[in-house]
Amino acid sequence: MMSGWDSEKMIGLAERYGTPLYVYDLAIVREKIRKIREHIHPAVCLFYSLKANPNTTLVRKIYETGTNLEICSLYELKVAQMAGCSPKHMLYLGPGKSRQEIRQIIDCGIRYVVAESMQELEVINQVAEETGKSVQVGVRINPAVAVKGARLQMGGAARQFGIDEQQFDEMAALIRRLPRIRLTGIHTYHGTRILSAQVIAENIAYILQFADRVIERHRLTLDYVGVGGGMGVAYFDGESDLDIARLGHLSQRSIEAFAAKHKGTSILMESGRYIVAEAGMYLAKVLYTKVSQDVHFAITNGGTHHHMAAGGMGNAFRKNFPVRAFVPERQQVHRYHVSGPLCTPNDLIAKHVSLPQLQPGDIIGIARSGAYGLTASPVLFLSHALPREVLLDGGHELIVRERDEYMVPAVRLVM
Amino acid sequence: MMSGWDSEKMIGLAERYGTPLYVYDLAIVREKIRKIREHIHPAVCLFYSLKANPNTTLVRKIYETGTNLEICSLYELKVAQMAGCSPKHMLYLGPGKSRQEIRQIIDCGIRYVVAESMQELEVINQVAEETGKSVQVGVRINPAVAVKGARLQMGGAARQFGIDEQQFDEMAALIRRLPRIRLTGIHTYHGTRILSAQVIAENIAYILQFADRVIERHRLTLDYVGVGGGMGVAYFDGESDLDIARLGHLSQRSIEAFAAKHKGTSILMESGRYIVAEAGMYLAKVLYTKVSQDVHFAITNGGTHHHMAAGGMGNAFRKNFPVRAFVPERQQVHRYHVSGPLCTPNDLIAKHVSLPQLQPGDIIGIARSGAYGLTASPVLFLSHALPREVLLDGGHELIVRERDEYMVPAVRLVM
């Protein structure tokens, strides 16, 4: 799947569109979605999480594969609408929804709306009252048991998300007192960046068993149960990609059992990173090379303001994303620190990576950069321009975000 | 100095301008600049580092106090120009300057232009050749000795910045071969976030002694020597603010000696954080409160997309910025996790902080947020709106950045 990223093609893109540049290959996105469909039980409805990469055209192309959309803010809602998404295919989450947001969610008629606290349920009821409508609401449950093997845990501990599993009965009683709300869903999210098929399968089984219990105990008729996502991709040395076939195999029985017993209840699963991470490449041009205290540096025009994850921020110990040099065969290899143009020592996008000897004008790439790349980075820091984003669709190259001349006044968006 | 942040005033601002909101108090900015002037030797020319907070109006007000401007990108140059800054008062740094950038720097006639590598010197010479001009250039020197006590070191190790001290002779020989370049300055930056007056004073003495040696050895006539900055402010428990009077006292002798011997050579010092950090307050409104697994949560409409530093990203162990609750007297106090609206568990702006019992509608503030706040944060992440920024100038309240309705298409800027 990495064969698409050959040097000639990448150098051509860099020349045509300039650097720094984000490139996304739709063939890889479609292949990842196809794999999920092939291996995961057909009762599961797949949702793409816009937060991983909210580029409008990319989102539209993903929606056109039949994938639903998970959104978490009003602008993500707007993007989903621009992508042509029906409210029947939208899942709306978020621990801090404002009244204005709730009002728009209700007006828009989004099918899967998940509340994250008792107070939010009361606010939704109030806003629904104002609109004269009734609202079908799901609740996010913070599971009592923590998942092992997640890089970022979201459940099983004190969390800003959802309602503790232990508070379910109290919550159900509250909803019975709220005239405008009907409980139609349960949603859970254990963690993210999970590379173990077994851990994800155990999560799914745990959630479906929990849902089965509360459905029985409270005699619920649920439209849906969300089992979260968390399917990771390998970025760093020592990590191996998730075995999706094995995940399909290990989760088959619990999903089959739940689906057979609760025929009207959809099983929702989200994925952002797994769908788009491998499809993205961040290209930058070497501006200068030098040796400082015996360390080789390549200073590029791309940096952590566009790709904070490659800078290792947020990890206690920095690890390198996969780095490629798109250069002709060279005799010498050095271990490089690759840095960006920012006036801060943290602007290192790779440290101690072996690369062919670099020279000004060379193109380097950070692979697996399609998820949590540009929009998860401090793009205003040091006030450099936002880069172009180009989407490869078969033989076509679509500019899906125009480059800024400078930073700020307009963060332009091409639709 | 904190007396300006009383509850009534903050609640009023939150009501008038909405939340989330950044508030900057110019009285504090001016007081910090006054303190530097009062205590630091008068031979020192002070430069404000735009990267700390590039808000145009704030920058203009700082420039109007007689402070020069340090800039690191073309957009920062544009901001400095909009602020009315003369090119004679601009210092331009950056390890990855593009040809286009160098061209504009030359066209603009910036007085203090600092090159960071041998290759950059050659590119500057080429671009100068194209314009038919000669350029006065400073060089950034990476000192051979590391500073102790800096939170973020920039010298004394392998760095993307500058030319190693040990390479000075080679660099000087290169410059003699470049017809369009004249060496007129030396610049050094040891580290940042230094709270020890003694460490900063030792840095200054080290740099001035180094400059004195190379001036003698190479018979240079220098327009300036930059001694960097690095003056920190205390954010976290156990930290104490820098004693600026003591810094003035400890650095007096080395500055006096250098200034007396090299009368035509200016001594430049930069400060971003020290000037603006304490002047900023980030205000957010509590949307929901809840208890999850015995932990009290306050979920606000402000988060790490606006204030990543408060989220502790980049620190191996999270520490809390000073958090204030602008609420009437309340009987109960709880230990809170304060989180934002983002669908990510990392969106915590305070953890285990003791605050009066909070309820929806309450205003909380993150103090000391004037530096490396909004523009150093991943503002596009989860696609929420950018907040307003309001500048307090005596009795006046100026909106210096308008709020977005949604995020993206326009990151608007009010000038």
CATH topology description of the largest domain in chain A = TIM Barrel
Number of domains of chain A: 2
Q: Specify the CATH architecture of the largest domain in chain A.
A: Alpha-Beta Barrel
Q: Total number of β-strand segments of chain A?
A: 20
Biggest pleated-sheet summary of chain A: 9 strands, mixed
Low-pLDDT runs of 5+ residues of chain A are 407-415
Distance between the termini of chain A: 27 Å
Tell me the name of the CATH homologous superfamily of the largest domain in chain A: Alanine racemase
User: What global shape of chain A is seen?
Assistant: elongated
Q: Rg of chain A, please?
A: 23 Å
- Which series of helices and strands of chain A comes N to C? HEHEHEHEHEHEEEHEEHEHEHEEEEEEEE
How many distinct helices of chain A?
Answer: 10
Share of helix among residues of chain A?
A: 25-40%
Oligomeric state of the chains?
homodimer
What average pLDDT do the residues of chain A reach? Answer: 92
Structural class of chain A: alpha/beta
CATH class of the largest domain in chain A: Alpha Beta
Largest interface, C-beta closer than 8 angstroms, per-chain residues: A-B, 81 and 81 residues
Strand content of chain A: 25-35%
Core attributes:
TIM Barrel, 2 domains, nine-stranded mixed β-sheet, homodimer, 20 strands, Lyase, Ornithine Decarboxylase, Chain A, domain 1, eight-stranded parallel beta barrel, elongated
